[in-house]
Every structure is written in C-alpha cells, then in structure tokens.
Design goal:
461 residues, five-stranded antiparallel β-sheet, 13 helices, 9 strands
C-alpha cells in the first residue's frame, strides 16, 4: 500500500486539506471573477488592428497598381496587405486560381524584381475569402510602396469581378501599449507569487514536497518567461528574433503545463517516479507536439523574411504532413490524459485527501482547457491554418479579448494552484498525518509488516 499510493507519508500538509467546502467554493469564485475582470479589459479595450481600405474596380486592377502604406512606427509591429474580391451573379461555392506579381519600391523609386505568386479565390454567395498579398514581421521603415499586377483575371471562366477591397493591416499602437503593460503586470505579480511560494516551502526538505508542489515550483519560473521580460525588445529592436523568442517562451510553458497534467494524475497512484519510466514517455509525447509546432513557426518565419509575399499554400503539401503528425500526437496526449484521470479517480476517490486533490485538479484543468479550446476555435474560424499563422484577420481580432483571455486564464490558474498547494498554516516538519486515524493505521500496518516479519518467521524444514 505504501509503495503504490504516493504522498501518504508526505510531511507537508497542503493548504487544500485545511479548506472547508465553502472556502474551496470561494477559491473558485475568486478564480472565475478575476479571470472575468481581467478579460473585460479586452472587451472594452482598443482594437487589436488598425486598417486602411482601398476599393478598386475591375478596370483599375487590370492595370498595374501602386499602393503606399500609411505612416507607421515601432508600435505598429507588423504589416499585412490583403485583398477581398466581390463578384457578380455567382452564388454557388467555387475556387479559382490566379497569379499576381509584387515588387517593393524603395524611397528612390528604384525598381526591384517582381515576385510572381499564385493565389486562390474561394467564393460563395457573391463574396470571396480574403487572400494574402504581403506580410512584414517587423517594420524597419515608416512607409512602404508596392507595385502589384494581376494576371489571368480575364481568363477565369464565369467570374465577373466587381471590385477588390485591399486592406493595410497593422497592430494598433494603443493595443501594443496595452500588451506591454498587461504582460508586465502579470510578470510583476508572478515574481511576487514565486517569492512568496518559495519562502513558504524553504523550511521543508525537497523530498517532503508533494508532486504538485514540485511542479508548481517549476511552472512559476516558466511563467516568468511566458510573460516575457524581454517583450519591450519587440518595439526597441529592428529584428524578428524578439517575436521568435516570445513564441518559444509561450510554447515551452504550455508544453510544461501539459507534462504537469500527465504527471500529477499518474503520480497520485505511483510513488516510484523514476525519470526513465515515469517521465520519459510523457516528455516524448509533449516534446513531439512542441517540436512540430516550433518547427512550423520557424519555417514560416524564415520563409517570410526571405519573401514577404510567402503564403503557406506554397508549401501546402509539406505543411499538411506536419499538421497530421501534430493532430496525431495531440490525440495520443488527450487519450493518455483521460486514461490517467479515469484510473486515478477509480482507484483513489475513496482515499482520504486524494478525492479532493483529484477533483480540484480536474475542475481547474477543464476550465483552462475549455478556455484554450475556445480561443483555438476562434483562430480556426479565421482560416489562419489556410493562410498563415499570423495573417487573415477578417473574422477575428476585432478587439483584445482573445489576448487578454489567454494570458489571464493561464496566469490566474497558476496563482490559484500556488495558493492551494502551498503549505497549510499548521504544517510542520513532523508528519501532519500522524493524528489522522486512517493514515495512522496505514503507516502502522506497513511498519508492522516490516518489523514483525523477521520475529514471526519460523524455520521450515
């Protein structure tokens, strides 16, 4: 019994054990209320994007068109140019291919080489989806001038284009300032929580920490990088590296969080947590997800730097293969997590203290996963997987709600776990379970088995 069920003899009493039902309810209410209030900043905050539109008729786009971007500074961060055609008399759904040529004009109007790119028009009910034209990951000039030529429009059968609306999209400077202050505030609170949490555990030996306490200690440090103390470099440095570092920090924290969920539900039942047998399988699954996601991001980032007109449709075949592998490992992860949760609940639900640990961890995890899935669905609806990880803001990013929800749910989740898994006020270095009859019987039984066995053993012939 003692070797199978973990943490029965742990000397640190969790604050969760000392909370009454109404106090646990208050913890949940504080968690939900704080999340709602911080997300409200996004609902009533500034729009994430500022857009300037240019409407050109069919006769105008048959000739070369020169576009000039509005004046932009560092706080605009990036630039997207997109187009959306509107057609006559076709309500059925269809897809057509066309070619466009793009070249940038510098301040001296010197002609650079044209970049020829193929694009698809997906239309339904006389409206077509947005297609990407140009994207800059960081801005090194205040103004940009582009010359664009369309080919094959006259050759597209039964396609009567009325006009095309071109949009210059960039981040709203007000949103950039909100992003900096919002994440800095969470960074500041994370440092305070980490100092408090570390101080509350420093008088206890590391071997006495529960598996939750050890992982919260790791996750709080990763949360610091998730909030990114290097974020101001995005507006201070003319480089794409700060954007890449921010993506790496965020994906690494999410990967560690996924390993944490697997570890606690498995660790509830097993005290033997050998790194090879306990952690390696979990890290292999999660590391595969992390590596594929990061590879796709770096791949697109490098291609976009070399070619601002790059679109994922150019490498659609390769991208589809990686996407299949990504979804495969995600399914494996979810099935593994569900299996560990069911086993833990079935075997430990009647054990003292384990029931509340499993219920609390499960409810909090489901809230976080539900929020992250909602954000993922919003991004899927914006066709980001078809166009680019950053392009096509037609149906999303009308305000900062998604941004605020993502950072608030993860930060507040970690703060809540740090509170409930911190040592209770009456925790001491001595066993906090010695006075509990159930644990006393378990411990006494195990000790008697070890001590009395040699005494009761008689010679056999």
């Amino acid at each position: 019994m003692k070797s199978f069920y973990s943490d029965l003899g742990v000397s640190i009493k969790l604050r969760l054990y000392s909370l009454q039902k109404h106090q646990i309810l208050i913890v949940f209410l504080c968690f939900v209320t704080t999340f709602f209030l911080t997300t409200m900043l996004g609902i009533f905050g500034p729009k994430m994007l500022i857009t300037r539109e240019t409407n050109l008729t069919r006769s105008q786009i048959l000739k070369p068109v020169i576009f000039e971007s509005p004046s932009m500074g560092k706080f605009h961060q990036q630039l997207w140019i997109t187009g959306q055609p509107f057609i006559h008399g076709r309500k059925e759904e269809f897809i057509r291919q066309f070619t466009l040529s793009i070249r940038a004009l510098n301040s001296e109007d010197q002609h650079l080489e044209f970049l020829n790119r193929s694009r698809s028009i997906h239309c339904k009910n006389e409206m077509c989806d947005v297609f990407s034209i140009f994207h800059l990951d960081y801005l090194h000039d205040e103004n940009y001038r582009l010359e664009i030529k369309f080919f094959n429009l006259d050759e597209l059968k039964n396609l009567d284009i009325k006009n095309i609306i071109f949009k210059f999209n960039s981040y709203n400077p007000s949103f950039t300032k909100l992003e900096l202050w919002y994440r800095f505030a969470f960074l500041f609170f994370t440092l305070l929580i980490l100092i408090w949490y570390t101080n509350s555990l420093k008088k206890f030996s590391l071997r006495d920490w529960s598996i939750e306490q050890k992982w919260i200690f790791i996750l709080l440090r990763s949360l610091i990088f998730f909030n990114n103390p290097l974020l101001p470099l995005i507006v201070l440095v003319n480089s794409w590296i700060p954007h890449l570092l921010d993506a790496i920090f965020q994906s690494t924290f999410l990967a560690l969080l996924m390993v944490f969920w697997l570890s606690i539900f498995h660790g509830f039942r097993h005290n033997d947590r050998n790194f090879t047998t306990f952690y390696v399988p979990k890290f292999v699954i999660v590391f595969s997800i992390w590596l594929i996601s990061l590879f796709l991001l770096v791949w697109q980032q490098i291609r976009s730097l070399n070619d601002p007109s790059y679109n994922l449709s150019i490498d659609e075949n390769y991208y589809s293969v990686f996407r299949i592998f990504l979804f495969f490992f995600l399914v494996i992860y979810l099935l593994f997590l569900l299996y560990l949760m069911v086993r833990a609940a079935a075997e430990l639900k009647k054990m003292p203290y384990f029931g509340i640990r499993i219920k609390f961890a499960s409810i909090m995890m489901f809230i976080v996963i539900l929020t992250l899935l909602t954000i993922a669905v919003m991004r899927l609806q914006s066709d980001s997987f078809k166009q680019s990880l950053f392009e096509n803001f037609t149906k999303n990013y009308r305000n900062t709600t998604e941004f605020c929800a993502l950072f608030s749910i993860l930060n507040i989740y970690m703060y809540t776990l740090a509170f409930v898994y911190s040592p209770a006020k009456n925790a001491s270095k001595e066993s906090d379970y010695s006075n509990n009859p159930t644990f006393a019987i378990l411990n006494d039984t195990d000790e008697e088995d070890v001590v009395m066995e040699p005494l009761n053993k008689t010679p056999t012939f």
